[in-house]
């Protein structure tokens, strides 16, 4: 689509957003201005959810007398008789897990969504409510209680990717939104160190999904291109790249909120995990191991995070504007025990970060992409 046409179609854009029709390179400010802006308090725009974040680079120097989280336990056993996710163990609802060899999926015994909820709607003035149907499942990544994704072999991580894709396909037949995610570490609320993820699928488009859907659609309608593919092109070999191969780009996004937040973007058009071919799944397994090893090496501990996949919803209409990606949101800021809190100004005004995304990316790039335990050829599936 011609740029002029794109510009007029967009009609000026949403408040504060950069014009999508402006060529990427030309939008980049001149280096002196970049240096000036980036070393002082400034705001950055997140085009994926149409929101701003305040960046205050000098604040990382402030003293910290606040909360320190306990360092997570290391040296876990390969099997824990008290773990409700280990093979052959009994869960809270009395069911016994099979003696699974690779991965194992079960319906969450304390599901937040159920398939048989009443679907009525009420609307009384400002009071609105609607029924929501869905289901929640737990995904055990490995029978080994002590094996995190970073410690797994590429074929073992590849099996998790296949499970993610299979769950997407299965739940997408019945529900509009399929949210795959993992909470890793006590700091992120994980109830159990046994490596596991979750999938929640529901009939509504939840908040983040709706915002990303709207932003990607606006960009697509204005430019005829996928927002995240344009972003990946603009970040190519830039200061925020953490890891890159033919199929995947991992960056600390320009607009990141969490100190070491990363965005994993498929470099070729893909709406969902089910679109990925064999090679893309293989390279994704290697890219994830690379990223997670860097995370673990950063503060020399199993790095806590919440991560999850965003992929096209399952509803009528086209999804050409969607590009598959994963978000990693780690809470740690300056050490193994000092985390970032999203409180105060963030709750009441807008998001804020101290460390710049460029500094965070540089630290993640500099740290080794191989965990010390991997060098001893202890790769285990
Ligand atoms: P998190 O650790 O990420 O919170 O996930 C564990 C999930 O496992 C949690 O949602 C479920 C909890 O409801 N669970 C079971 O389904 N069965 C059990 O026996 C214990 C925990
Ligand atoms: Zn276990």
Describe this structure as you would to a colleague.
Helix 4 packs across helix 7 (278-298). It is built from nine helices and 14 strands. The strands form three sheets. A nine-stranded antiparallel β-sheet has the order 3-6-8-7-12-13-11-10-9, sandwiched between helices. The protein has a three-stranded mixed β-sheet with strand order 1-2-14. It has a domain at 2-21 and 42-58 and 206-376: 2-Layer Sandwich (HIT family, subunit A), CATH 3.30.428.10. The chain is α+β, with helices and mostly antiparallel strands and 381 residues long. Bound molecules: 5,6-dihydrouridine-5'-monophosphate (H2U) and zinc ion.
The main pleated sheet reads as: 9 strands, antiparallel
Number of helices, counting only DSSP H or I runs of 4 residues or more:
9
First-to-last CA distance: 48 Å
* Fraction of residues in β-strands: 15-25%
Overall CATH class of the domain at 2-21 and 42-58 and 206-376 = Alpha Beta
How many E strands?
A: 14
Q: Do you know the CATH topology of the domain at 2-21 and 42-58 and 206-376?
A: HIT family, subunit A
Gyration radius over CA: 21 Å
The largest beta-sheet arranges its strands as 3-6-8-7-12-13-11-10-9
Structural class given helices, strands, pairing?
alpha+beta
């Amino acid at each position: 689509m011609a740029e002029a046409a794109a510009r007029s179609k967009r009609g000026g854009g949403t408040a504060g957003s950069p014009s999508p029709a402006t060529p990427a390179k030309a939008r980049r400010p001149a280096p002196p201005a970049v240096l000036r802006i980036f070393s002082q308090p400034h705001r950055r725009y997140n085009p994926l959810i149409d929101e701003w974040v305040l960046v205050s680079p000098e604040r990382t120097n402030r003293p910290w007398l606040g909360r320190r989280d306990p360092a997570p336990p290391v040296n876990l056993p390969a099997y824990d008789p008290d773990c409700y996710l280990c093979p052959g163990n009994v869960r809270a609802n009395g069911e016994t897990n099979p003696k699974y060899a690779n991965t194992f999926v079960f319906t969450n015994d304390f599901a937040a969504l159920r398939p048989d909820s009443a679907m009525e709607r009420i609307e009384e003035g400002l009071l609105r409510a609607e029924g929501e149907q869905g289901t929640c499942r737990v995904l055990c990544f490995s029978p080994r209680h002590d094996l995190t994704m970073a410690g797994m072999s590429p074929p073992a991580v590849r099996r998790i990717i296949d499970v993610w894709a299979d769950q997407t396909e299965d739940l997408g037949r019945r529900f509009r939104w399929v949210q795959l995610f993992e909470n890793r570490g006590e700091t992120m609320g994980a109830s159990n160190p046994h490596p596991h993820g979750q999938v929640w699928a529901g009939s509504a488009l939840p908040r983040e999904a709706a915002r990303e859907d709207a932003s990607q659609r606006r960009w697509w309608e204005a430019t005829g291109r996928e927002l995240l593919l344009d972003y990946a092109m603009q970040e190519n070999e830039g200061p925020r790249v953490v890891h890159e191969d033919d199929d995947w780009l991992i960056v600390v996004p320009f607009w990141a909120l969490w100190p070491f937040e990363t965005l994993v973007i498929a470099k070729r058009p893909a709406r969902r995990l089910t679109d990925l071919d064999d090679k893309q799944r293989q390279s994704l397994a290697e890219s994830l191991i690379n990223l997670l090893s860097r995370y673990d090496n950063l503060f020399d501990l199993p790095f806590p995070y919440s991560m999850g996949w965003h992929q096209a919803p399952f509803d009528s209409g086209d999804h050409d504007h969607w590009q598959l990606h994963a978000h990693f949101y780690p809470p740690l800021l300056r050490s193994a025990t000092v985390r970032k809190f999203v409180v105060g100004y963030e709750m009441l005004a807008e998001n804020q970060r101290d460390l710049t995304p460029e500094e965070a990316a540089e630290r993640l790039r500099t740290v080794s992409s191989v965990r010390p335990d991997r060098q001893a050829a202890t790769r285990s599936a």
